[in-house]
From TrEMBL:
Enzyme class: transferase
Purpose of the protein: Essential for recycling GMP and indirectly, cGMP.
Family annotation (InterPro entries): GK/Ca_channel_bsu, Guanylate_kin-like_dom, Guanylate_kinase, Guanylate_kinase_CS, P-loop_NTPase
Name of this protein: Guanylate kinase
Record CDD domains: GMPK
MF annotations from Gene Ontology: ATP binding; GMP kinase activity
Residue span, Guanylate kinase-like domain: 20-198
Amino acid sequence: MMPALPIQSSATTEECLHLGRLIVLTGPSGVGKGTLMRSLLERHPELYYSVSVTTRSPRPGEIDGKNYYFISRSKFEQLVAEGEFLEWAEFAGNYYGTPREAVLNQIHSGKLVVLEIELEGARQIRASFPSALSIFILPPSFDELEKRIRFRAQDSEEAIARRLLRAQEEIQAADEFDIQIVNDDFETALNDIEMVLFK
Ligand SMILES: Nc1nc2c(ncn2[C@@H]2O[C@H](COP(=O)(O)OP(=O)(O)O)[C@@H](O)[C@H]2O)c(=O)[nH]1
Ligand SMILES: Nc1ncnc2c1ncn2[C@@H]1O[C@H](COP(=O)(O)OP(=O)(O)O)[C@@H](O)[C@H]1O
């Protein structure tokens, strides 16, 4: 008789993806990722949105643990050293990272997990999770992107300038991702994302 095969007790992170699914939403600052994400969560509460960790200061109305976990640079660097992030990057002078354990637990329990992250982090996820689905949100034009960032009125002039400079590079990378969606009419863009996630 053949010996029994050992039971696979610890699936690799990539194997876990077959239980759930990982979705990456990326695109330049001001394109509407956060607003799309909020509507998506209202309409589909079964989705798991990964709350990121950042060293950026909270904007008015932002809540610790809901919008982000706001921490110091030294604490962030400690978490990086401890391998606590699935991906992390520096953006416009601040660090941002995705908590590893929470996300892997949710994927393992079969949830559809959505990360809303910038370009470098999205590239890291594509490299470590080739079966993740990545969506790049594009603005209808660069002028419109600038208007949206300014209309949001939540950033200093310096922060706006950094975001706009970075946005030009980010938009050029749109083709690296699986799907590109233009956020011109909001409802149309939201429906397009839903088609991708739930088709
Ligand atoms: N790599 C990475 N990027 C993140 C993470 N969380 C948020 N971001 C991105 O960091 C960028 C800056 O975010 P934020 O300061 O909230 O500014 P906003 O995009 O202008 O609203 C955005 O592109 C976010 O998608 C994360 O955990 N990892
Ligand atoms: N389709 C759209 N048309 C017009 N304004 C939009 C649209 N989508 C988002 N916005 C607005 O653009 C601004 C930036 O959106 P936000 O979600 O904060 O962007 P991001 O998270 O990508 O930085 C917000 O004031 C938001 O209300």
